[in-house]
Amino acid sequence: MSSQSPATTTDTGSQPRYAAIKAHIRAQIESGEWPAHFRVPSENQLSQDFSVSRMTARRALSELTDEGVLIRSQGLGTFVAEPVPAGSLLEVRNIADEIAARGHSYANRILKLEQTTASTEVAVALGLAEGAAVYHSIIVHLDNDLPIQFEERYTNPTLVPDYLHQDFSAATPNEYLTHVAPLTEVDTTVEAIGADETVARALEIQPGTACLQIWRRTKSSAGTVSFARLVHPGNRYRLGAQLRF
Known about the structure:
Elements: H1 6-9, H2 17-30, H3 43-50, H4 54-66, E1 70-73, E2 77-80, E3 86-88, H5 95-101, E4 106-117, H6 120-126, E5 133-143, E6 146-155, H7 173-180, E7 185-194, H8 197-203, E8 210-220, E9 223-233, E10 238-240
Parallel strand pairs: 3-10
Antiparallel strand pairs: 1-2, 4-5, 5-6, 6-9, 7-8, 8-9
Helix pairs in contact: 2-4, 3-4
């Protein structure tokens, strides 16, 4: 596929020149003209097309690379990046279904599946007494063999007594819990964190890497079912929502 003339795709007259280049590149990607892995024009070509300096063209490419839109390969050029997987703030979706919907393969690594005692935080979240028995699982979810979510979950054994006996390599905790204890309410909190040693090792990233952390408490008609911490590498996942009035 060949690039189109900037004048035919994006109205750039009122924008800073580097922003006009960024808008043009985004328009080409969003239209499907430049698919994932498409090699974008070089700094030299962009500077000629937009009548700007190479520094201006470099700024546009660098910012789009930092934003995850493009990926640069030393000696090869700059390419359109794979779309970053997106989740929703307004619904609780099974991550295996999200991955399958993108045409990718899902897999997971079960790091822990045990009975333990509730800390103060977990006890408050689940509405149990401190020190009460709870089920604890840690699972890493993979998209095309790339770790994209670290899931640590505490589950109320009174409401889900068979939790520890499930094969979570075949069905995720979300899928299983939705089936045996249908959701009636969900509390969600999102925050930015730096990955600690445990999370970094599980997600195959460097400690301190920027991550998106989601705290999620799920309830059924019988009570609070589970309390989960979901951690995503910041450059591999994003959250979105659409509201209509």
